Structure formats: C-alpha cells, structure tokens
Amino acid sequence: MPGRNLTREEARERARILTVDAYDVHLDLRSAVVAVEDGTAGTFRSRTTVRFRCAEPGAATFLDLLAPAVHAVTLNGRALDPAEVFDGARVTVDGLAEQNELTVDAECAYSRTGEGLHRFTDPVDGETYLYTQYEPADARRVFATFEQPDLKAPFTFTVTAPAHWDVFSNSPAEGDPVDDGEALRTWRFAPTLPISTYITAVVAGPYHVERDHYRRQLADGSTLEIPLGAFCRKSLAKYFDADEIFTVTRQGLDFFHQEFDYPYPFGKYDQAFVPEYNIGAMENPGCVTFREEFVFRSKVTEAAYEGRATVILHEMAHMWFGDLVTMQWWDDLWLKESFADFMGTFSLVEATRYQAGWTTFANRRKAWAYRQDQLPTTHPVTADIRDLEDAKLNFDGITYAKGAAVLKQLVAYVGRDAFFEGARRYFKRHAYGNTVLGDLLAVLAETSGRGSEAMAEWSRAWLQTAGVNTLTPQITTDADGRITELAVVQEATADHPELRPHRIAVGLYNRSADGALVRTARAELDVSGARTAVTELAGQPRPELVLINDDDLTYCKVRFDDASLAALHHGLGDITEPLARALAWSALWNMTRDGVLPTRDYLALVLRFAGQESDIGVLQSLHQQARTALDQYAAPDRRDEGNRLLAEGALRELRAAEPGSDHQLAWARAFAQAASSPEQLQLVQGLLAGTARIDGLDIDQELRWTLRQSLAAAGEATEGDLAAELDRDNTASGRRQYTLALASRPSAEAKAASWSAVVDSDELPNALVEAEIAGFQQAGQRELTAPYADRYFALLEDVWEHRTIEISMRIVSGLFPRYQTTPQTLAATDDWLAGHPDAAPALRRLVLECRDDLARALRAQLCDAKA
Length: 867
Known about the structure:
With about 850 residues, this protein is of the alpha+beta class. It contains 29 helices and 28 strands. Strands 5-4-7-2-1-10-13-12 form an eight-stranded mixed sheet. Strands 15-16-17-19-18 form a five-stranded mixed sheet, covered by helices on one side. Strand 4 and strand 5 form a beta hairpin. The two termini are about 45 Å apart.
C-alpha cells in the first residue's frame, strides 16, 4: 500500500499551519448503474472545493486523495497541472495564501471492499445500492480531503444520482431534489456542523424507508424535535422490524439527554442498514450506518436482538463521545470507542428491556479484551499510533472492550454522579473541538474530588500500561471451619508487571436448602499491590465457592482456590445468579486458554452444565468456546472423541429443549456444527428434507444453510445440492452461504478453487472474500489445507503491497495456517518474522498475533495431553 499512509508527525504539522473553514463536495453518481451493467469496475466524478486558512503564507501542504485520475486542480483561481501535483495518493500545493480556496476535480473509484464508496447490486431485483464507510481514513477515496480528525469543518454535499433513488447524508436535504433530465436528480444537503472527515456520509439507492419522530422537553422549556429514519434494501423490507429499532432509539435518546445534559446537536437521526458492511456500525452523525445482518431474515435468539440494541446505543453514544468531541489523533481513539462501548451496555441495562447486558459483557465482550491483552502486540488503552496503518489495527479488543471495562472500574472509583457530571462538563467545554487524555482527566478530577494527582495515577495504571492482572483467593480456616484470613493475591506477567488498584467485590457462595449455590456474604474493597486482606469476611464459615470480582467491577483474570474449583466441577450450573455464573464460565475459559485447565475438563463442564444455562447469550458463547477448545486446544488424539461427545450432548439438549425456544435453536446450530457420524448426518439430511422433525424446530432458510454447511464440510453435499439451495435463496445472504459451503467441501479441488479466488484475484467483494476464507479453514480438514502453509508465507508482502488494507487484514489473519498446530508451523512463522524485519509494522503485528495464538494452542494441547 505505497504512498497511502499518513504519519502522526505529518498530521501535526498540517494542523499547526492550517485551519479548515468549509468543504463543498459534489458527487456525480450517475455511472453507478451503468458501471454495473457493463461489468466494469466503475468510476464516478468527484468535485471538491475546500476553503482554508494558512498561518504561514507561502508554505506548502497536501490534500489526501486516492483516485484513478484527477482532471483539474485550481488554487486561488490559478490552474495547476494535475500531473505535477497529484501522485495517486496526495495533491500537493505550495505558495499558499492566508485565505485559500482549492478545487480538485477527480475521477474516483467505486469500492467492492467496503472502503470508500461501496457499490452493491442486489441479486434479487438487480437494484444498485451505495454507501460510504471511511474510518479511519477512506474519505480520501471519495473526495479530496485533509484526512485527519483534528481538522474539522462544515461539509456541504451535493449528489447527482438516478431519479428513482433516495440519497441521504449527515444533514437534511435543502428542499426537494432537482430534476436534471436524463432520469437524474440532484440533492443538495444543508451544511453540517464542524465534524471530522471520517464521519461524513452518503447513502444512495432505492432504499426502503421508515420514518418516526422523537420529541423531548428540555430544561430551558424548549422542545427538541429529531426526525428519525430507518432504511434497508427493498428486498429486505418484509423482514425489517423498524418499530423495535425506533423503540430502542427513543429509549437511548431519552437516556443520553438525561445523563449528558447536552441536546443532540445534529438535527435528524437516520439509521441505514447496508449490504457487505465490514464492521458492526459507524457513528456518522445524522446518518448512522449498520451491517444489514441486523435485519433478521430468519428466527434468531434474544441475544441477537440484545446485541443489535447494544450496537444502536453504542453508535448513539458516539454522537457525543467522538462526533461532538473528537480525539485529536488516533492515539486517543479510546476517548470515543471505549466510552461508546461502555455506554452502549450501561444505557442498554438502564433504559431498555435488555437487562442481561452486563452478563453478556462479562462473558463475551471481555473475552475479546482478555485475548487481545495477552498478545505480544498488546498496548495501553491510550496507544502509540504512529500512522494510519497503526490506527486501522487498533480498532481492537483493547480499545473497545478493555477500555469499556476500565471505564466501568472508573465509575466504581469516582462514583456514578461524578462520572456523569464530568461527562457534562467535558461536552460543554470542548464541543466541536478535539481533545487528548488530559482534557478528560481534568474534568473528572474536578467532579470526583479525588484531585488531579489521584486521577493521573489512576490513568497511569489503567490507561497507560498494558496487560491484564490475575486475582486469586487465598483462604485459611480454623478448626471450626471458619475463615481466619481471606486474601486476594494479584499477579502480573514479566512483560507487563504493573500491579493495578482494583475496586472489587468478593462473594462467598454456599448451598441453600433447595441445593442452589447462592451468595451468602459479600465484601467490596480496594485491592492494591501483591496481596490484600479481605478483613470484612473473617469469621465467615468456609464457603463452597469464593468468587473474586463478583459483580464484575474490575478488569482482571480470575482464578479459584482448589475447593472452589472442585465446587464448580460439581455444581457450576447450580449458581443461581446469572452474572456470577457467567463470571465463573469466563474464568474457566481463561484457564483453558492459559493451559491451566485441561481442555477435556472444560469440555466436560460444558457438557454437564451448559444445558442448565438460562442466559442465551452465555449459552451461545459456550458453544463457540467449546468449538474453539476442541479444534485448537485439545490434544490431537482426543479430538474425535471430543467431537463425538459434543455432538451427542448437543443432540440430547436439542431434544430436551422447550419447543420453539431460543435454547432449542442454539442447540440445533451447535448440533449441526458437530454432527459427524453417519447417524447424525442422516438426521441432518432428514431435517433438511422434512422427513425428520424435532417438535417446535422451524427449519427456516438460515437454519437450512447451517445444515447444508454441515453436510458440505462432511462431504455429504454435492455441488448440485448447494446450487439447488442457492436457487431457493438467491439473495446476497444466500450467495455468501453458498460460497462458504462450496469452499467447505473436503476435496483438494474445492480448496484450490477457494484459495485462488481469494489470493489470485481481487474481483471478489469483501463479503465473499470473508466467506471463501471461512470455508477454506475447516478444522477437520487439516490434511487438505496443510500444503498451503508455505504458500501463505510466500504471499504476505505481495498481498500487503497490492491489496487494500481491509482485504489484506482478512487474508493475513484469515489464511494463517492456524489448524496446523505443530511445532513446524510455529518454526515457519518464526522464520518468516526473522527473515522480514523490515516488513510493514502492521503486517508484522498481524503475523505476530497469529503466531501467539498458535503457540497458545500448542501449550494448551500439551496441558490436555498430560491430564
């Protein structure tokens, strides 16, 4: 990716001399439909006028632009030669005046990778849909821009497009679109408030549109009115539950207005669900974009609805944390993402019907953080971001989930009232501006009463150091079985030795008369240093279970004393409190990943107690983690037996589950993934054909694809079978599933075709690249994918140089030979790293992370083999 990077130093220098006053961007998208019909990649016309001031007249600067061609460049009325000033990534201009007007007329390319202006054609009706996605730096694929977050400005967008389309942007349209003839119309949108380039947006196409309205009486007596919109493709309209989306939206707006005391400033609030989206959602003010998988075509569990609601609220929190007040550079990405991740769950539990949000956060979201924070590439929450490639890779489990967990700890440290009062002052003090870490700490020091030194120390320990601590109970008892001393032992790794201050709760659990494990005592305290005594619990009877970090107040890994671990082996499912049970599952999973708990023991716990798990989100996590444990952490000679037990257990629970319930659906998917014996595969065939039935289980289209995938991976589905399924479901989702199933077949030919489609060509869109990789990588097909390990290492630098960063990341991480869990693969990875010290740092980071996952798997397998 030569010439496409931007360093922090370049951005600082540009911000030092420039102040941007306004952008005027005209996009002519008439070619979108024509380009699809003639099969070309397609380009569109982009004309940008930017007005800016220069503090050093006579100086030079550059705009960022990734475009096939530039037709004209005009600076302050003077025409410049595009061949001299444009190098394919930057438009360089010199001789700046104090006041400047620069116009760039360019030919930009439609995207098929989800970066820039993405174009998609619906296989159902042939309609074309466009949307933009920019974070961190892809606005430059659509218009010429100063592509950094601290050069904010108002943006005025004008868009010409086919007349039967609708076009949306951050601001409302100024009047009706103008008929331009030739079946075209032009929309002009009102200027935005000052915002960063990466959150500007254009969404265009024949979208299905639902409308609603939000009203709120403000403290000053005025009424705030926000028009609400929700969009999806026309072919998804029959599945679109806009009423539920609007309900969560109104609840979120009520919550944030109440807590932030700063009215939503961006006018309308549209939410567009768009195809082939690379991420969950993007917080473009006034025009939030979501992946359209949140429009549920088939039955999904309550966890899916909860997950969507959390994302809606996460993006809404960004309207304040990120859009109104924006980090100065990507070093402080956490100032928006950590806050949005935390506030998404906080508001979910406080304002909506989804009351299990913190249980989901503890069991699923933090698992992402724990993994990321134990990689050799871990970093502090406030990271050192040298350039845009660094920034792209730091949208990770630390910036999101660890940062959110740390903020939960911060609320416990300063108190809820002080936290939200700090947020209110932060918004009012820095509205439409850019901030750094110290700006937030300053207001929290004011509101918490802890002072600047205490906040700086908290920040140093939690935000400016990397790694995760481990907390373990130590217990001594007297002759009567009462606790004489209970202590919390804190450990850190040699690489990241920081012992942090923790606000935690310690819970003691015992059997009740009905056999349940219930909390009988609790102490909340501050933990610091290597050992902290829990004096409040001295004298209590020795409990069956001691749970460190009860209520999940801090961010840490938890271990158990021997008696508590034995209690979990005999009665984990008897813990009545869902959050406590989720924390126990999370701790056991971390122990398995760390090679402390043998994989066979973890799988035995899942087989014994997952059927008692009431929380559907936790259950689905257990299914996923059990699969990972078996595929990567189990001793090789135990994989077949482990899979047999998982399949039999899943089928047993499937048949026992309440008909039509979420749990029944989850167990059906788990069974399909594990089915391998002739009898099990025959049942899968029967469910597809309708000759076998399980009471209450609806074999809808998404479940049909799950069953087809199971048969394809087992070699029990022909190309004709899969083609027939595609005929039933010739949709975008159906094509992804079909591609995945084809690549999953256990044949050398299927693997060769899948590899070639991803590696030897750049014609596949992002969604199908993802499907091909997922199908290629099947844990049960290690012998078929083994020959590709050497080819993988040989292609890395070429891929990184010639493909976009989004696709490069998918190939580098996705095609790593992770199921070749052998010392030889580890040695090959080390050889590549040693032989390529000058490879792009972001590329090396991805390979290092894959290497660490592989080494962890080998350690876990050794632990399992010794058990």
